[in-house]
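User: Just a sanity check before I run the rest of the batch. Below are the structure tokens for the first item. I only need the designed sequence back.
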């Protein structure tokens, strides 16, 4: 803390010195116009040149006349200029008192309202506290991003850890860092469709909802790796419409809508298709639900991301790490209550229960999902595959 007070005192002294220096310079500022003296010296120089025989008499007369004319003009201008008021000793005293009183007042306010006795809080100590937090779900997004950033540094090839870091950075409002993390992840795992899809969405959010060329390129790579990526298809269709290709964008949306299970998301996308076709231009979805198709971030972390989160809590006790993962899965289940027709969300929840080894909850979630998507053969198959895959992954 002593270093802080020394630095504050030096800065205050420097600020006061600058104020006094500027005031002193203003007090010494000349009030007379220097142009008059210049022309007077010019007259003397003309006479000197003439005396030395370097200037003819006729040229001397012309030069003196011109210099005299300019001298008279400068003298008249100087008389019309306002004279700078002189600075009295009282004013100078007030300036000095103000320069001294300002830092003293700042110190007094800090002593009254601040915490002068607070100990230093180095980042390393805070990071250690965050990593060993009993309830990691209470960490703020910036704190969680800091923890995951250190984990990723120690495991640069951990793709799932990188994706978790990007989500935390985006939740903290640091979209540039999230985009940078996803770009570096794409270089590490160029064949991972989720990475390209997340990068596209981050670029769209960073551009305030606009599909930039970089975002479109990321979505195209995501679709090439995963043709069933609903989010990428939605944004590609939107980009086409924004660029003037109304029919091509609507065709992209209709193909996406045909593969969506019946529910609010499908209805919202159909309503947006109808409104856009009628208006002949892009009409935004009224609720934004059409953009939630097949998006892992909306549903919660996948089973591999849950495992990455467990690794991120390596500094905590096993029971605490288990509680952290269970809280993430609980958040996922809570989100499905508000969006029960999210097939991707149910698949992730079922796999996550398998990763945790909770067979009863997994079976219950599978039964609920099958009941919700009754009559949809494709959805039933996806649900069963999620259950079998999770069972294989469970310890």
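Assistant: Here's the designed sequence for the first item:
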């Amino acid at each position: 803390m002593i270093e802080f007070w020394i630095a504050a005192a030096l800065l205050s002294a420097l600020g006061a010195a600058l104020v006094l220096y500027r005031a002193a310079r203003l007090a010494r500022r000349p009030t007379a116009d220097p142009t008059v003296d210049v022309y007077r010296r010019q007259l003397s120089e003309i006479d000197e040149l003439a005396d030395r025989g370097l200037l003819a008499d006729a040229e001397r007369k012309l030069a003196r006349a011109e210099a005299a004319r300019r001298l008279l003009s400068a003298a008249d201008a100087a008389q019309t200029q306002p004279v700078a008021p002189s600075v009295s000793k009282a004013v100078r005293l007030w300036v000095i008192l103000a320069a001294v009183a300002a830092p003293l007042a700042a110190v007094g306010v800090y002593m009254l309202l601040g915490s002068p006795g607070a100990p230093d809080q180095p980042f390393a100590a805070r990071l250690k506290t965050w990593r060993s937090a009993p309830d990691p779900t209470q960490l703020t997004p910036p704190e969680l991003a800091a923890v995951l950033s250190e984990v990723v540094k120690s495991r640069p090839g951990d793709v799932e850890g990188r994706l978790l870091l990007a989500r935390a950075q985006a939740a903290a409002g640091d979209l540039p860092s999230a985009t940078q993390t996803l770009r570096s992840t794409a270089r590490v795992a160029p064949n991972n469709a989720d990475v390209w899809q997340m990068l596209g969405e981050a670029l769209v959010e960073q551009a305030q909802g606009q599909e930039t060329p970089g975002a479109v390129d990321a979505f195209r790579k995501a679709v090439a790796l995963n043709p069933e990526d609903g989010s990428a298809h939605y944004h590609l269709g939107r980009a086409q419409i924004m660029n003037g290709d109304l029919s091509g964008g609507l065709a992209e949306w209709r193909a996406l809508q045909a593969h969506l299970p019946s529910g609010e998301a499908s209805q919202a996308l159909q309503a947006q298709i109808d409104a856009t076709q009628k208006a002949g231009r892009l009409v935004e979805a009224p609720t934004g639900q059409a953009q939630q198709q097949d998006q892992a971030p909306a549903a919660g972390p996948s089973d591999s991301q849950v495992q990455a989160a467990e690794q991120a809590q390596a500094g905590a006790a096993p029971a605490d790490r288990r509680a952290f993962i269970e809280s993430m899965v609980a958040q996922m289940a809570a989100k499905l209550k508000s969006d029960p027709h999210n097939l991707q969300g149910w698949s992730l929840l079922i796999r996550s229960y398998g990763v945790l080894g909770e067979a009863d909850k997994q079976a219950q979630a599978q039964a609920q999902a099958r009941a919700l998507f009754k009559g949809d053969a494709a959805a039933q198959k996806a649900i069963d595959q999620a259950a079998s895959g999770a069972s294989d992954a469970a310890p």
